[in-house]
């Protein structure tokens, strides 16, 4: 009823309904209509198409569904059409949208459109005077190759086709898009080549081609006229050959602000075109086949505004500068290279420092707490670090993860871990001595504690009973003594308990049976005696076998999923290992109720009596070892467990697969 109304904006007004019909359409002067971010949950209403004066139409985040109506062809004055983020708009994108000759912005992102885009571009082909400047079709289910007619959009500045399933090569006609500033083809299945005509896009600023399967060779001509290029992201699959073929001394026409290259061969030398990029604020180079010594001055040439520095999964050699000041740096990842020399004493506010798999040596800086006060994750596993863990690490209040596995660290662990946010600790495979610090028990968020294969002694500290969120504890391969703690019953989230290869004694307490989420129990190679508790069938996770994924994910985050011992935690899920102790009594029949059990090792004990007949028929059981006990009677028949080594060392056992035959039953009189 407002015939003079020109602009109507009802953005984010929490409107719940929109009428599909109206008794009269009197507001035909309307030029701009914005109904975005409401909750209409309906089809696009037909009365919209009577508003033929519309120049801008915003219907984003309205939960419209159905296909695009053909009546959109009536809106010939449209300059802006935004149907993004409705999630349930579907069908093929019709060519009629390409016929809207005044259209400058078309955004159909984050919907459920499918099929190819040939129909849309046939519409553009019949509209040689297209004024389209921005086209966003990202986050749909579109497929097929990109059409050669792409090059007809002479005014196009922004092209986003990311997060679809496009395949093939980039059409060579892309070189005709002389106005293009932003190109995003990331997260598709592009498996072809990148044309040399790309180098004609003299206005291109941002190029994102990551997460595809590119192949071929990139030459200097690919970048020949990219004078305004500032941001490059290009990644392919490790098995796909994509190589840079530029002369060693090539000086590119651009000055990059950010670069991300993964699985692209730019080595083996550290290329000059990369050395001269002195305005970089973000560097990500992963598996780019560089096996050269990095120029020391290169680090100091990087912008003081540097936020990301990733040089990983190569064979880069050399020492890092002793001191650098990057106040804005968020992440350092130099993992999986051949860097050597001391731990970098860089003054930085970085939250993530990742130096795994190098040859760094010497001590961790005593003042690391002052050098890296905002550190949240520290990964320096598999290096040659020595000396003690400095107490100043306890001063880093936001520290979440410490991963120092496989080094040469020695001395006692500092006893200063109070009220930190630390939830993941991995200092396995070092030479640490002394007791496990009581202060670990005052880490309210502690979830993963991995201290295996050191020389720690004493008892397991009772303060750990306070860490009720503990999900994985591996203290194996030390010299810990005392009995199994009764307070373990309070660890209701415990997924993995590994205490093998220590000096623990006493019996297995019934309290262990209360660990409802326990999937991995390893008490092997200790001095534990007494019977296996019959309540072991109460370990519900080993009955149902579900719910281990979240716990595995926590371990992988702490170890970065690389260490052989933990990278395949799945292989040890649902296991009980009690070998190498002094256990007596019979194998509890209740064990046969653990229907999800995959690994059972009871070897090298003093167990007696018969093997429960249904034990070998537990369907999930893949590995069984009962050797070197005092078991007696006939071995239950099982085609899966017909290896004699499973039962050897039990002189009173008989029957296949052992050579000892069982005596025939006496005939009845």
From TrEMBL:
It holds the Pfam family LRR_8. It is a single-pass type I membrane protein. It is found in: Cell membrane. Keywords: Cell membrane, Glycoprotein, Leucine-rich repeat, Membrane, Phosphoprotein, Receptor, Repeat, Signal, Transmembrane, Transmembrane helix. Gene3D superfamilies: Ribonuclease Inhibitor. Its main location: membrane. InterPro entries: Leu-rich_rpt, Leu-rich_rpt_typical-subtyp, LRR_dom_sf, LRR_R13L4/SHOC2-like, RLP23-like. One of its GO terms (cellular component) is plasma membrane. Residues 132-278 form the Disease resistance R13L4/SHOC-2-like LRR domain. The keyword Cell membrane applies. The keyword Transmembrane applies. Belongs to the RLP family. This is Disease resistance R13L4/SHOC-2-like LRR domain-containing protein.
């Amino acid at each position: 009823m407002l015939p003079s109304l020109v602009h109507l904006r009802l953005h984010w007004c929490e409107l719940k309904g929109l009428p599909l019909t109206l008794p009269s359409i009197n507001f035909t002067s309307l030029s701009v209509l914005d109904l975005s971010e409401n909750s209409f949950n309906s089809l696009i209403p037909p009365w919209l198409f009577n508003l033929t004066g519309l120049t801008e139409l915003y219907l984003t985040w309205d939960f419209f569904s159905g296909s695009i109506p053909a009546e959109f062809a009536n809106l010939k004055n449209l300059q802006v059409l935004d149907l993004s983020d409705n999630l349930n708009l579907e069908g093929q994108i019709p060519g009629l949208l390409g016929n809207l000759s005044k259209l400058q912005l078309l955004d159909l992102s984050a919907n459920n459109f499918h099929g190819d885009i040939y129909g849309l571009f046939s519409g553009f082909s019949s509209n040689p005077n297209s004024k389209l400047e921005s086209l966003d079709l990202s986050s749909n289910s579109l497929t097929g190759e990109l059409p050669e007619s792409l090059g007809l959009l002479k005014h196009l500045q922004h092209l986003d086709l990311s997060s679809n399933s496009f395949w093939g090569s980039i059409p060579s006609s892309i070189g005709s898009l002389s106005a293009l500033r932003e190109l995003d083809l990331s997260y598709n299945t592009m498996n072809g080549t990148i044309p040399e005509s790309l180098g004609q896009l003299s206005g291109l600023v941002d190029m994102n081609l990551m997460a595809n399967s590119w192949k071929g060779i990139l030459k200097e001509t690919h970048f020949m006229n990219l004078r305004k290029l500032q941001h490059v992201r290009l990644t392919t699959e490790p098995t796909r050959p994509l190589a840079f073929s530029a002369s060693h001394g090539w000086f590119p026409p651009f000055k990059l602000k950010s670069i991300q290259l993964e699985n692209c061969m730019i080595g083996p030398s550290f290329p000059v075109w990369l050395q001269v990029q002195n305005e970089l604020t973000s560097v990500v180079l992963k598996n780019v086949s560089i096996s050269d010594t990095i120029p020391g001055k290169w680090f100091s040439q990087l912008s003081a505004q540097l936020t990301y520095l990733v040089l990983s999964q190569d064979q880069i050699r050399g020492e890092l500068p002793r001191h650098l000041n990057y106040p804005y740096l968020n992440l350092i990842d130099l993992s999986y290279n051949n860097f050597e020399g001391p731990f970098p004493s860089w003054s930085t506010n970085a939250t993530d420092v990742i130096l795994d798999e190098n040859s760094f040596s010497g001590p961790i800086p005593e003042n690391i707490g002052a050098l890296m006060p905002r550190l949240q994750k520290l990964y320096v596993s598999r290096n040659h670090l020595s000396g003690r863990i400095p107490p100043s690490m306890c001063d880093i209040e936001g520290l979440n993860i410490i991963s120092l596995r496989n080094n040469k660290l020695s001395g006692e662990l500092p006893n200063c871990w109070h009220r930190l946010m630390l939830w993941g600790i991995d200092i396995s495979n070092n030479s640490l001595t002394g007791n496990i610090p009581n202060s670990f028990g005052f880490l309210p968020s502690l979830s993963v504690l991995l201290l295996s294969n050191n020389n720690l002694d004493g008892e397991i500290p009772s303060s750990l009973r306070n860490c009720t969120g503990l999900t994985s504890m591996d203290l194996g391969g030390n010299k810990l003594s005392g009995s199994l703690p009764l307070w373990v019953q309070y660890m209701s989230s415990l997924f993995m308990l590994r205490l093998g290869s220590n000096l623990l004694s006493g019996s297995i307490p019934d309290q262990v049976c209360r660990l409802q989420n326990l999937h991995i129990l390893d008490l092997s190679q200790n001095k534990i005696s007494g019977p296996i508790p019959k309540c072991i069938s109460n370990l519900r996770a080993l009955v149902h076998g579900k719910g281990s994924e979240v716990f595995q994910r926590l371990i992988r985050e702490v170890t970065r999923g690389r260490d052989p011992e933990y990278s395949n935690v799945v292989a040890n899920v649902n296991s009980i290992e009690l070998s190498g102790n002094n256990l007596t009594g019979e194998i509890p029949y209740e064990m046969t109720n653990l229907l999800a059990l995959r690994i059972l090792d009871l070897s090298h004990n003093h167990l007696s009596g018969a093997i429960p007949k249904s034990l070998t028929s537990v369907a999930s059981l893949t590995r069984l070892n009962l050797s070197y006990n005092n078991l007696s009677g006939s071995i239950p028949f099982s085609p899966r467990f017909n290896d004699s080594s499973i039962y050897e060392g039990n002189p009173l056992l008989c029957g296949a697969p052992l050579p000892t035959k069982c005596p025939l039953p006496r005939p009845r009189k």
